Amino acid sequence: MTLKLALAQMDVAWHDRAANHDTAGRLSSQAKEYGCRGVVLPEMFSTGFSMDTVVTAEPLSGPTPSFLRSLASSLHIWITGGFALARENEPPQNAALSVNPEGRDAALYTKIHLIGLLDEDRHYGSGRLPVPFDMDGVRTACFICYDLRFPELFRCVAQDCDLILVIASWPEARQAHWATLLQARAVENQCYVAGVNRVGRGGGQAFTGGSVILDPLGAPLAQAGDEETVVFAEIDPRIVSRVRKEFPFLRDRRRRLFGEGASSCTSWTGPGAYSNPRPAASARAGESRSTATRNALRPWTPGRSPRSTRSVSPVRNPSLRRKSMWRSMSRASSGWE
Question: Do 279 and 266 contact (CB within 8 A), yes or no?
C-alpha cells in the first residue's frame, strides 16, 4: 500500500498563531484536494522558531495541538506539525506532534539536538529518544531541523523505518547544507526522507524553503522552490524493501564498534497509537525482549514525560565500552584482526 504525502511549505507569520493556523489549514485543504493522505508542516509553524518562550510555549491541550487534532479529523488525513511544548517547572521543548485521521495523537517527538549557535539550548529542554510510529502501513519517524546534522540519530531508526520526516526552520544562510544533508540521510539509510522547510522572514533570518521528498536512493520525487507551496509524492514501503534487498548495505554495518546491541533506539507512542512491529532486538538472537523494551511499548498518556529505553549492549559501563573499542582498534591496526 502506498501513501501520498504532502509537504506544506509555509510563509510563517512571526508570533501570530491565528494567521499561521489559517495558512496551515488552507495548505492542508489544498493537499487533501490533491488526494494526499498525510501533510507535514514546518518546525514551530504556529509561531516561528523563536526563543521567546513566553509566546511560543503551550501545553498538549493548547491551541496548536488542538488545532492539529481538529484539522486531521476534519480532513480525515494524517497531520504532523511543530510547536513549543510547555512543561511544569522545566523549560519547554521543541516538539513535533503527529495526529492520525481520527484526530488522536499518534506520536510526540521532542527535539534532541538543540542549536547552541542560536541559543536554543538556553531556552528549551532537550528530548531523549526517537519516536517511530505507523502511518497507514508506512513505518515513520520525525526529527526536527538541527537533528539533521547528526547522522547517528537517523541510524537509530533506519532499520525500522520506511520514511523519515524532518520539519525545519532552516535559514537561507545554510541552505546548501539542508539539501546536501537530506540527500545524505536518504542514501545512507536507504529510506524515504521528506524535509519540510519554511519561507519568508522571521527573527532576523531569511528562509528560502527547498522542501523535498527523496526516494531511498536519494533521488528527488517532489521539490519546492522559495515560495509558499504544497509538494507531494507517493511513499511506497515496497521500494524501500527492494532497495535494501538489492543493495544490502545496512546489514554490513559493524554495530560492535558503536557499542550497539539493539537494532533501534525507539521510545514510546501516543495513546491508541501503533506499537513498533519490530521492537528493539536483544543483544543476541533468541533472547527475549528486555524489560526496557517492554516498558517502552506500554501506552503513553498526555501530561507524562516520554519513557526512555536503553540499548542492550554487551558492555554496559561506558568507560569499559570505550576501553574495549580502543583495544579492538589497536589490534586491528597491529594486524591482529
Answer: yes
**Per-residue pLDDT tens over the stretch 80-132:** 999 999 999 999 999 999 999 999 999 999 999 999 999 999 999 999 999 99
DSSP 225: -
Between CA 332 and CA 337 the distance in angstroms is 5
Cell digits of residue 158: 533506519
**Which residue numbers are catalytic?**
43, 111, 145
In tens, the pLDDT along 123-152 reads 999 999 999 999 999 999 999 999 999 999
Confidence check: pLDDT of 53 > 60 = yes
- Dihedral sign (CA 141, 145, 147, 149): positive
Phi, psi of 132 (to 5 degrees): -65, 155
Residue 287, classed as helix, strand or coil, is coil
- Architecture of the domain spanning 3-243: 4-Layer Sandwich (3.60)
Rounded Cα distance between 63 and 173, Å, is 32
Question: What whole-number distance in Å separates Cα of residue 55 and Cα of residue 261?
Answer: 42
User: What is the spatial distance between Cα 98 and Cα 84, in angstroms, rounded to a whole number?
Assistant: 14
Can you tell me whether residue 286 is helix, strand or coil? coil
First-to-last C-alpha distance (Å) of the chain:
45
* Structural Rg of the chain based on CA atoms: 20
User: In 10 A of CB 99, how many CB atoms?
Assistant: 25
Buried b (16+ CB within 10 A) or exposed e, 153-179: bbbbbbbbbbbbbbbbbbbbeebeebb
Read off the pTM.
0.80
CA–CA gap between residue 195 and residue 188 (Å, rounded): 16
